[in-house]
């Protein structure tokens, strides 16, 4: 059974005015017209440094035009790495005309055809409102919010997630410790972070971790009492399925989201804290899915890519090395092996293991031959740039023929 050592977190994660406001339905966290998300800020800094010739982003030529461009190739959203237990409870629509609209919008979203998904959802929302059925209406709003969120239209995503929160509380009787509420709150906190409202965002992440931790304590106590103090079911996850694993998975998701926030937006003095949280996420993933599962590999890849992009190369190498061999035995991860190897090669290069970095970059090119054209082009360019950087560091021979 898991051990959760977060007394340190409990000590400082007290309820603040900011966390209370985060959960309100007001506009206090929409930001001013002058606010910008962190991506745009990084791009402005990059362009200024580039013009002055002092850019420290030069090393990221292998990652495209910006330090964040590579994430589209290597990493999924952190929301995908732990089992999806979020969202409004699925409505049974087997004989309902809304079924095809909701299903079609979901498929459009998975294909990143966001405008098409939004058009279908607008029709579904009109139909649901005409029937005045509150649960399907909330479900459509939730889909709308997630579509805008994945599209990175943060203003619209913020608006619709707040509508969902309000409906969850007022119409569906949900509390701030229910999984639906936690799921939406994590995404709202992420939106605040992108907008640069870091204090409010951290309050939101802390709230989610704190509330889910309390749920976990009660959850684990129930299973301990059920079996007796001296008896432990060694296969609890298999015996009880999602009833047992869902609250644990959601706790892992909150920790992973908070760890990524600390890496992306906080100073180096928070690095050990992020490492502690992600280590606990690994334990959770091992228990629920196994050490060589797609969930575990995705989590390692995402966190490793984030660390690489933030120049935390030694820590990136630590986590990426855990899955670099395991990924070969996970069928669901076959298509992401070249990207994983590129991440690992970048971490190796910056920690002085340049020959090994070149080895994995070449493996990435070889394995990408069976992938799509975009991936093949990327890995080939990555290898080319890596070789260029390696050759640049070698002293030239004085022999002239």
TrEMBL record:
It holds the Pfam family TPR_8. One of its GO terms (cellular component) is mitochondrial inner membrane. It is found in: Mitochondrion. The keyword Glycosyltransferase does not apply. The keyword S-adenosyl-L-methionine does not apply. Keywords: Mitochondrion, Repeat, TPR repeat, Transit peptide. InterPro entries: TPR-like_helical_dom_sf, TPR_rpt, TTC19. Belongs to the TTC19 family. This is CBN-DDL-3 protein. It comes from Caenorhabditis brenneri.
């Amino acid at each position: 059974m898991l051990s959760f050592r977060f007394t340190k977190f409990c000590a400082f994660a007290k309820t603040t005015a900011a966390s209370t406001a985060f959960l309100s339905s007001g506009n206090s966290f929409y930001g001013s017209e002058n606010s910008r998300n962190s991506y745009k800020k990084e791009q402005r800094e990059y362009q200024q440094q580039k013009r002055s010739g002092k850019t420290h982003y030069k090393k990221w030529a292998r990652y495209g035009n910006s330090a964040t461009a590579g994430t589209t190739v290597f990493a999924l959203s952190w929301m995908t790495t732990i089992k999806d237990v979020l969202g409004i409870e699925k409505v049974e629509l087997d004989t309902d005309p809304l079924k095809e609209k909701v299903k079609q919008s979901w498929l459009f979203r998975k294909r990143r055809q966001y405008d098409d998904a939004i058009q279908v959802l607008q029709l579904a929302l009109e139909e649901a409102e005409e029937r005045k059925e509150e649960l399907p209406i909330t479900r459509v709003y939730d889909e709308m919010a997630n579509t805008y969120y994945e599209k990175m239209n943060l203003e619209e995503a913020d608006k619709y997630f707040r509508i969902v929160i309000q409906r969850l509380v007022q119409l569906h009787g949900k509390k701030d410790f229910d999984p639906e509420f936690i799921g939406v709150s994590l995404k709202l906190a992420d939106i605040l972070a992108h907008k640069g409202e870091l204090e409010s965002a951290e309050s939101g992440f802390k709230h989610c971790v704190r509330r889910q931790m309390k749920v976990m304590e009660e959850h684990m106590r129930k299973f301990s009492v059920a079996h007796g103090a001296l008896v432990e079911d060694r296969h609890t996850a298999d015996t009880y399925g999602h009833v047992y694993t869902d609250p644990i998975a959601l706790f892992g998701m909150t920790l992973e989201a908070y760890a990524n926030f600390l890496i992306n937006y906080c100073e180096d003095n928070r690095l050990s804290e992020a490492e502690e949280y992600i280590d606990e996420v690994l334990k959770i993933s091992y228990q629920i899915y196994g050490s060589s599962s797609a969930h575990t590999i995705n989590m390692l890849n995402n966190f490793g890519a984030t660390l690489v992009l933030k120049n935390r190369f030694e820590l990136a190498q630590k986590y990426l090395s855990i899955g670099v061999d395991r990924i070969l035995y996970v069928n669901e991860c076959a298509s992401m092996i070249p990207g994983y190897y590129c991440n690992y090669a970048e971490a190796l290069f910056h920690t002085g293991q340049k020959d090994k970095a070149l080895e994995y970059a070449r493996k990435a090119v070889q394995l990408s031959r069976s992938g799509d054209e975009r991936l093949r082009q990327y890995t080939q360019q990555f290898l080319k740039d890596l070789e260029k950087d390696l050759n640049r560091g070698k002293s030239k021979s004085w022999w002239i023929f």
